[in-house]
Amino acid sequence: SDWVNAFDSSVTQLMANAYLPLNTAIFNIVTFLGSPLTVIILTALLCVWLFFKKQVMTSLWLGGIQLSGSAITEIVKQVVARPRPINQLVPDTGFSFPSGHTFCTTILVLSVLSLLLPKIHDEENKLVVRLIGIVWIGFVAVSRVYLRDHFGSDV
């Protein structure tokens, strides 16, 4: 629709002044760390750790959420079938909407926050941990748009 195209154009114009080799290198690293494969591996490691800590149900729950979220993302990608932007800085395959990197990273961050926050008693520390999580999700989302693998509305 028109408002989605207008939003995507605005985000693309905003990014136009940021294209520098250092930014590209940084966002390549961020996008790798936020990739569905990397995030699923990190989630699996977290699940194994929880399993050995005798938190079997939490382990299964977090693993199930991550795998289900990844599957839902892929199904939506196939149904919507939105092509990726042209002139990608790092070529990617498949469809554009929604961003699997952003979705999987969000699930992992929320999972980690659900485990960490109850153990933190100082409200300022809780705020810092929440902000770190939000910033990380934001970095992954921006990296996907910066590298021209997604439109702003995809993330």
In short:
The chain has 155 residues and is mainly alpha-helical. It contains 6 helices and no strands.
Question: What descriptive keywords fit this protein?
Answer:
mainly alpha, single chain, 155 residues, 6 helices
How does this structure look, described?
The protein is mainly alpha-helical and 155 residues long. The chain has one domain. It is built from 6 helices and no strands. The longest helix is centred in the middle third of the chain and has 25 residues. The two termini are 17 Å apart.
What order do the helices and strands come in, and which of them pair?
Layout: H1 2-16, H2 21-33, H3 36-52, H4 56-80, H5 100-116, H6 123-146
Helix pairs in contact: 2-6, 3-4, 3-5, 4-5, 5-6
Number of helices: 6
Count of β-strands:
0
Question: Outline, from the CA principal axes?
Answer: globular
Helix content: over 70%
Overall mean pLDDT stands at: 93
Between the first and last Cα atoms, what is the distance in angstroms? 17 Å
Tally of domains? 1
What amount of the residues lies in strands? under 5%
User: What ranges have pLDDT less than 50 throughout 5 or more consecutive residues?
Assistant: none
**Biggest β-sheet strands, sense, barrel:** none
Gyration radius over CA: 17 Å
